[in-house]
Amino acid sequence: MTADVVIVGAGSAGCAMAYRLAEAGWQVTVIEYGGTDAGPFIQMPGALSYPMNMGIYDWGLHTEPEPHLGNRVLATPRGKVIGGSSSINGMVYVRGHAKDFDHWAEQGAHGWSYADVLPYFRRMEHWHGQEPGGEQEYRGHDGPLHITRGPRRNPLFNAFIESGKQAGYPVTADYNGRQQEGFGAMEATIWRGRRWSAANAYLRPAIKTGRVQVIRGLARRVVIENGRAVGVEILQGGQVQVIPARREVVLAASSINSPKLLLLSGIGPAAHLAEHGIPVVADRPGVGQNLQDHLELYLQFASKKPITLYKYWNLWGKALVGAQWLFTGTGLGASNQFEACAFIRSKAGIDYPDIQYHFLPIAVRYDGKAAAGGHGFQVHVGPMRSKSRGSVSLRSADPEAAPVIRFNYMSHPDDWDEFRTCIRLTREVFSQLAMEPFVKYEIQPGAAVQSDDELDAFIREHAESAYHPCGTARMGRRDDPMAVVDPECRVIGVEGLRLADSSIFPRVTNGNLNAPSIMTGEKAADHILGRQPLAPANLEPWINPRWATAQR
Known about the structure:
Blueprint lengths: L2 E6 L3 H12 L4 E5 L7 H4 L54 H9 L7 H11 E3 L17 E5 L5 H12 L15 E4 L1 E2 L1 E2 L2 E2 L2 H11 L3 E5 L1 E8 L2 E9 L2 E13 L2 H11 L2 E2 L1 H6 L6 E2 L11 E9 L11 H14 L11 E5 L10 E6 L15 E8 L7 E3 L10 E3 L6 H18 L8 E6 L7 H11 L1 E2 L31 E3 L14 H16 L23
Parallel strand pairs: 1-2, 1-12, 2-9, 3-4, 12-23, 13-14
Antiparallel strand pairs: 4-6, 5-16, 7-8, 10-11, 11-12, 15-18, 15-21, 15-22, 16-17, 17-18, 19-20
Helix pairs in contact: 1-6, 1-12, 4-12, 10-11
């Protein structure tokens, strides 16, 4: 099959584009280096700590030593599997705040304001919430992506939400609807007890049309002739071949691998390309720049009651949970256990939330290592809009070489103040009466860690990536020298080439990035098809009326 469009990357945006292009009758080839997403490690929501730590599913990328984090080297997981990072992530569903997208538009991403992107969020969603209060018009009800909420059977979830209320914060019925700010139930891409990845939602139905084929291979570069992308060179079974595209090539290979592919194809800063002997096709200095992420800390507490997941954190307990899920699709394995969350503002004068919480009824790391020798629980907390910026660059001209990833975490002085505020506000929340029956003592940082210097030392040693890298091929006006793609996702300086994934985000959105990445694929598909974008939805988000004078 000769394709109209060749998409590199069967991840969140790539799967969505393949689905919409096939729906319109186009022939699509998707190139994916990773293999199958079958098996319980990916499909069972409760097993989420496994796939991102398995080389068969993850690219195994790491940062360079981070100078502001004690020269620690941090993992940068990216999905190397059908479904991409949507097959190895925590399944948390967060659109981002309305003002995030308005900021994109202000920065030159015309047509990507909240009013513009809301119809695409609605088109992609099959929302299973039943909250009253007018939220229905903000949500989609017949899209491919099932959005559900956990049962919140563990009393810790509701205690966390109630403690936020007691601390003076609002409670939100739907943080993905009109009001993000507040404490409430968390949403997930889980359906009938199974991870509802972009592969399950989009790619498998697209393949069934007969208009989409998936080819396994390592994308080496985009083939460009006379200034136009005409195909993708891949390595498959030890042989190099070119997969041709009749109309367009689209990169959707992640915010790490998409800029790497641009650079390997001669699109990027001319001086950097010259260092590696790569002929310059388009001198775009913004390629690989503007790298952003969310950092977070785990504040952990010992539990007075034996009600946490710790009782299952052993071989026998995990076997029981796994067996129940395998035979019935139910039980603890059917949830990602992120069932309560919050978005708050760090201080007065900030008009929309800049701190996010994920609550988890066990004290454990993402890599599956239990931090507490007994029952405990934790909250993941971090600032949403760090001013620190990093980069992705080539280590060599060898397509098989890992890129150089430098986030420059905590390089902006404001980051330190914001993180200290996160810790102090969190301690206040957990001191409320609602948590009193459960909090035995603070495991980490520990009650003795109080001064700015003590908190900074803890942050330096313990801050971890929330795995939300983005921004490395920023969208903007065509006359912006640092923009890489225009508002129709076209790579500036090359015909027939687009890029559509979290690389194009001008600034990181509030919360987890899977939802806005899928939205990007949905919207990019309409641009590829030459369609008029969906009509703007002029629904106003809730902004705390006291934001200018009060923190809550």
